[in-house]
Design a protein that fits this description.
5-stranded mixed sheet; 75 strands; mainly beta; Immunoglobulin-like
Length: 850
């Protein structure tokens, strides 16, 4: 069989240079593929596993083609196959080297390369190692006789097809009878008993055998006693007998002959081992014979009193405090009683089992002791006594357990008792609950509440158990209630107030119940529990959350979202408008006569490309139909005057410095001075006289100074501010005055940065209404005018201090409509409505604020 791996070591004497080192003498260098100074290992009559390959190069390393190559081998039967007779175009030549068939021969190969007068050579050495097994011989040969205890070493010799002998590789040895001979993997034979068997040696597919015989020569008879001694009639005594050979080993398969001389003294019961039973007092001999060997043993029978007989071999108590009466008699070794004997009793540990002198034993605690029995003849005996309580029942320290919180724990104490009612110490107790979703119990008896309900507790010890009750009923100790919205809660009418509340037990677990809510004395909501509160009316209130005698109070600032008669309103019904004018920036108010007034700017084109507006008024007694009431204030004649372009966005308040009213209005010049807030006064609310000066300045100049571009506008129905970085946006800002004449800038109240998407372009035209004590709502206009397809909407916000405002969201708007300039009187909201493809028109809507 050819091995899977062949290691090749090469030695070559090369005239020239080694591979990779083309430096040598002369102009022809031979480079070899094999390492030098090594012996190549191969097999007889077989080619080497690798080609012998050389390369002819010049002294500069250039290949030499077409050089003649000569291959010469030594060794019987060696040959070269597939050899190159000349080098190829790259200077290479190769051949297959087949080794000779005699392993003892020296194997050699010489390669000579020449061209013209130049030549170089290399010589290689190899060794032919036989490995094919054609025949085997097991040495030593013939029949071998061994004594038990000897060892024989076998060698398996192999021979290949060429007659080369060698130690068989992978030799296998085994015995035809492993009970008689044992052979290990190294060929060592060890006898195990007498007999004859074959040793087999095998390698590859061939084998050879050797017969081995095993013998023993008896030299002595061995026993452990010289005399068989008996102390009772009927007593049986035995002793082992062995035949020993001359190597000191036992002859396992033979026994001596046995003869008892006097069978009235004893009887032979068994021969191996030798077993005798006493029959009468006296002495005799017993003879053992094996061949010519004879051994005599003595036999002596002398009856004696040897023990105390107790009817109970051992006693066991299964309960503490239990008793048992012991009796005893003095007997010989075969239980024949002796007359005139007295016995007494004692205990080795009276704390475990106590015993009276007359034999009354009583259990005291678990454990094991010896009860000592003493005879007056000096003979003693012991009776093992064991106290091992057996569980007869289980008791619980308490019949039932009540938990008032989930996660609460309690330790239950169960006790195992014996049949006399004493606790069984160290008893293994197990616990379980009938419904683990209600309560669980740990191995140490710790019960944990899991859910409300009732279940059972079973404590077991062995086959005995006791059942108790468990009830989990959470008791509320705290209410957790909070509003989802911080600050002001703004919701629609009759929608749920976003209140979350839960009842907790003492461990902070939620109790599955919905807390009740006390009614609102002011009607701010309807509903009786946390999940059903619906907003009815804006204002301040306190939510009183109640559960199980507990109450939690949650302050509430409720802003019910306004109700609109129409999402985009209805067009204002009026009798007439100034010719060729467009209404703008309406301001609605209720005058002292109860009439609804709408002030607005009517813009007209004075000259081509220039528009100007005076302040006009509508009046209505029913809030539905309006009549035109003429011009209220006129713009300045000069287009470059401070009020040269127009007047709009008014606010009318009672005067504080005299009788009548004061109007604040926005006016300005598009081309010169920008927009500012001015004032006018009236004693009848119809005829108005402008006051000198500017109430809210835009920061620019006034005549007679030359006009400059003002830093910010003022007016527009809303106060606006441009903060750095400058943005062309209206914002809602605050000004204050102690006398309605002199005003101070306070700062922004609401900006587009506070607005949601759709209102981040500009916000303006605020109108404010107190909707509940301490609660205000602002309605204002806003748009996203810097976005493509922008539209104006009307929005709302709420506040508790008229300073910080919380945006509620869009109040009015339509996908095809722009809404401008909102002004609120009572529940009537007046504004400008511009439908897609239509002109700007005044509109009105009813706003209900619960």
């Amino acid at each position: 069989m050819r091995p899977r791996t062949l290691t090749v070591l090469v030695a070559a004497a090369i005239t020239g240079a080694c591979l990779g080192d083309p430096v040598g003498s002369g102009s022809l260098v031979l480079v070899s593929s094999l390492p030098v100074d090594s012996v190549i290992l191969g097999h007889p009559g077989e080619p080497l596993p690798q080609l012998v390959r050389v390369r002819a190069v010049g002294s500069g390393g250039e290949p030499i083609p077409a050089a003649k190559v000569q291959w010469t081998t030594s060794g019987a039967g060696a040959q070269i196959n597939a050899s190159s007779t000349e080098t190829d175009a790259y200077g290479y030549a190769a051949a297959t080297w087949v080794l000779g068939t005699r392993a003892v021969d020296s194997q050699a190969l010489e390669v000579r390369v020449s061209t013209g007068s130049r030549s170089a050579g290399a010589k290689y050495r190899a060794s032919a190692v036989p490995y094919l097994v054609a025949h085997v011989s097991l040495l030593p040969s013939g029949v071998q006789t061994l004594r038990l205890g000897d060892t024989l070493t076998c060698i398996l010799q192999a021979e290949d097809p060429f007659g080369n002998r060698f130690i068989a590789p992978h030799a296998r040895f085994f015995s035809s009878d492993t009970a008689l001979l044992r052979v290990d993997t190294l060929g060592r034979v060890r006898p195990r008993r007498r007999g004859s068997a074959l040793v087999v040696g095998a390698a590859a597919t061939v084998a050879d055998t050797l017969r081995v015989g095993v013998i023993q020569v008896v030299q002595s008879i061995a026993t452990t006693v010289d005399t068989f001694r008996f102390h009772a009639i009927g007593q049986v005594v035995y002793d082992s007998v062995r035949l020993i050979d001359d190597r000191g080993l036992v002859v396992m398969d033979s026994a001596p002959q046995v003869r008892l001389l006097d069978t009235t003294i004893a009887r032979l019961v068994g021969r191996n081992p030798i077993t005798l039973r006493s029959a009468a007092n006296g002495t005799t001999l017993i003879q053992l014979q094996a061949g010519s060997l004879v051994k005599e043993l003595g036999v002596a029978v002398a009856q004696q009193a040897t023990s105390i007989q107790v009817p109970e071999a051992s006693i066991t108590f299964d309960a503490l405090g239990d008793t048992m009466r012991l009796t005893a008699a003095v007997v010989d070794s075969l239980s024949v009683p002796l007359t005139r004997s007295e016995v007494t009793f004692s205990s080795t540990d009276s704390t475990t089992v106590s015993v009276s002198v007359d034999g009354l034993a009583r259990s005291r605690r678990n454990g094991s002791v010896l009860l000592l029995v003493r005879a007056n003849t000096g003979v003693t005996d012991t009776v093992p006594a064991t106290v091992s309580q057996r569980i007869a029942g289980v008791t619980l320290g308490q019949d039932s357990i009540l938990f008032d919180a989930l996660g609460a724990t309690a330790v239950v104490r169960a006790t195992a008792i014996d049949r006399l009612g004493s606790p069984v110490t160290g008893a293994a107790l197990t616990y379980r609950t009938g419904d683990t979703t209600v309560a669980t119990v740990a191995p140490d008896g710790t019960i944990s509440a899991r859910a409300n309900g009732s279940t059972s507790l079973v404590a077991s010890a062995g086959a005995d158990s006791v059942v108790g009750g468990i009830r989990v009923l959470q008791r509320p100790v705290r209410i957790n209630a909070q509003l989802a919205q911080g600050g002001i809660t703004s919701v629609f009418l009759d929608s749920l107030i976003p209140l979350s509340c839960s009842v907790l037990d003492r461990n902070g677990n939620v109790i599955d119940s919905v807390p009740a809510i006390a009614p609102s004395s002011t009607g701010h909501w309807a509903g009786g529990n946390c999940n059903s509160l619906r907003a009815h009316r804006s204002g301040f209130d306190t939510l009183r959350v109640q559960a199980g005698g507990l109450e939690a109070q949650v302050p509430l600032v409720l802003a019910v979202r306004p109700l609109l008669s129409s999402p985009t309103g209805d067009f204002l019904r009026f009798d007439s408008l100034p010719t060729a004018s467009s209404p703008w920036a309406p301001t609605a108010r209720r005058n002292s006569r109860g009439e609804l007034e709408v002030y607005f700017a009517a813009w007209t084109e004075a000259t081509p490309g220039q528009i100007r507006a005076d302040l006009h008024r509508f009046v209505s007694s029913d809030g539905i139909t309006f009549r035109y009431d003429g011009v209220v204030l006129q713009h300045d004649d000069s287009l470059c005057a401070p009020q040269g372009s127009g007047i709009e966005n008014v606010s009318i308040v009672p005067r504080v410095d005299g009788p009548g009213w004061r109007m604040f209005f926005s006016s300005g010049s598009f081309t010169c001075y920008g927009w500012q807030v001015f004032s006018a006064v009236s004693t009848d609310e119809r005829t108005w006289v402008k006051e000198p000066g500017v109430r809210l300045s835009n920061g620019g100049t006034l005549p007679p100074e030359a006009p400059v571009s003002p830093p910010w506008p003022a007016g527009e129905g809303m106060a606006t501010e441009q903060l750095p970085p400058y943005e062309n946006k209206f914002q809602i800002i605050e000004w204050r005055s102690p006398d309605q004449v002199n005003w101070s800038y306070i700062g922004p109240m609401l900006t587009t940065r506070d607005m949601p998407v759709g209102g981040q372009g500009t916000i303006y035209s605020p109108t404010i209404r107190q909707i509940a004590p301490g609660l205000w709502r602002m309605i204002f206009s806003g748009d996203d005018r810097f976005q493509s397809g922008w539209r104006g909407r009307i929005w709302s916000a709420v506040s508790t201090d008229e300073r910080s405002w919380q945006v509620e969201g869009e109040l009015m708007g339509g996908l095809q409509t722009k809404l401008w300039y909102a002004s609120l009187v009572d529940d009537r909201l007046v504004f400008v409505r511009e439908d897609q493809g239509d002109t700007k028109r005044l509109a009105i809507a009813t706003v209900t604020m619960p």
